[in-house]
């Protein structure tokens, strides 16, 4: 099924812009694919090292060129709830590979950090760059040239984008992404948020706060709100990198295990040794990227992906821009309300019909390219399904329900929550920025107020405690960009600004830092580019300057005469506190090489 003409036009513009870099990329992966089964090019010494730890039969099979070998890249660790379920996945995958007549080896592990643990802590300044580290670590695992396909075990914020970049860097190999699923529902997210506000106001203590947080984040699996982790899973499915219906099945269930084994078998089925060879670098094209952006808008997904999708696309030679993302937002309706842009969690979304329902609605409306290639085969229509466990223990699929199970959570296209997407790109004399509008009430999407300029989250927290912020204002938090301190997420601001807004004040945030998928009810212009450290206008704003943020019109302005703005200098501030401790000294090179947020904030070139 072809997409609507306006979707086709944006896709064609991306295709034309990307033509040279995409052709070069495809030429390179064709060269890699042309070498055949890669173990055949290894010397006997190379190969002996590669299968030294295998069982005798596996050694015999790997010595030839006809048995497919599946590389497993895993982000397992048992501290983080989202990744703890991966502990058992390699054995399931190896069992499935044997059943399918292949072999599987753990090719390597990648780090997985949790922004929820590091929020407001020094370690958060490593978060964005961990994406690039993950891409490089996965590349090290695959560099042994032992594999005919790869499966990638990852869920959360920077992990999946990093793994996608790595997969596309080995674009001649088929790649299947295998999720772990969300934890079961705990304390509702809105109740947790209320306790956080009470704590910030000094009305409850740390014990009550920890109890609420522990009831919310209570078991294995991803957090249940619709942040970057769950946006990742949506993207992997709508871009065809998951098997259909795999994203939001809880861990530790028979269906989850069945989906994992099925994904491993599918990866083996699409190698160059068979008749359905599906190299990921050819599979993911401009249409796949546009489908991902449309899915992000339709679900009110994470603002982080305005950075990550650009870097992911670049890894395949595709040049995506914020302008593309913004124009797709204008024509994509919001069909999902999952916290923070609703009261439901991702389990409620899945129960209401989930991605199968959403994909069908978008396909029927012509908002998705239905003719893409996926790991499941030709076309996206097979993803408009619900995965269930059959009587024989295998995965069975049924057509997605015709009606939403709860239209307060998941709306049909005809009754969308709003006519445009949950993300918006802002432009003006401050630069370019991103705002998540899906959780912001319409009456809050315009604000004109004086600036309160600060250089850290802690400075705003101190001003709040000192009673200096009981008024209308726009908090300008600068020197938080990729080159300044790694562009951390600034969620310590969310609670404070939410309290002030609840008191009746008009407040907003403008920052060159990030707020991610948990961006909530306060209007926040984030990812401001150019950043302060690069001489961006955000660094020239002074206390009291009037700022206008208009999320409906897509503008961000500071009311200072152009001549005066040009004459102002960005102040020199001491950033040495951001340069050491918690491993930050090891990331000095990343900070120096980091690109702009609207170019993917990447620390290395990716062919675009």
UniProtKB/TrEMBL annotation:
Q: Name one GO molecular function term.
A: metal ion binding
Primary enzyme class: lyase
Q: How is the cofactor bound?
A: Binds 1 [4Fe-4S] cluster.
GO CC terms: cytosol
Pfam families in UniProt: ILV_EDD_C (PF24877), ILVD_EDD_N (PF00920)
- What's one GO BP annotation on this UniProt entry? Entner-Doudoroff pathway through 6-phosphogluconate
Dihydroxy-acid/6-phosphogluconate dehydratase N-terminal domain segment(s): 68-380
Required co-factor(s) are: [4Fe-4S] cluster
Q: Which residues bind [4Fe-4S] cluster?
A: 156, 223
Q: What is its EC number?
A: 4.2.1.12
State the UniProt keywords alphabetically. Answer: 4Fe-4S, Carbohydrate metabolism, Gluconate utilization, Iron, Iron-sulfur, Lyase, Metal-binding
Which parts of the sequence belong to the Dihydroxy-acid/6-phosphogluconate dehydratase C-terminal domain? 408-601
Q: Which InterPro entries match?
A: 6-phosphgluc_deHydtase (IPR004786), Dihydro-acid_dehy_C (IPR042096), DiOHA_6PGluconate_deHydtase_CS (IPR020558), ILV_EDD_C (IPR056740), ILV_EDD_N (IPR000581), IlvD/EDD_N (IPR037237)
Per its record, the protein catalyses: 6-phospho-D-gluconate = 2-dehydro-3-deoxy-6-phospho-D-gluconate + H2O
Q: What does this protein do?
A: Catalyzes the dehydration of 6-phospho-D-gluconate to 2-dehydro-3-deoxy-6-phospho-D-gluconate.
Q: Which NCBIfam families match?
A: edd
User: What family name appears in the similarity comment?
Assistant: Belongs to the IlvD/Edd family.
The protein's name in its UniProt record: Phosphogluconate dehydratase
Report the source organism.
Answer: Pseudaminobacter salicylatoxidans
**Gene encoding this polypeptide?**
edd
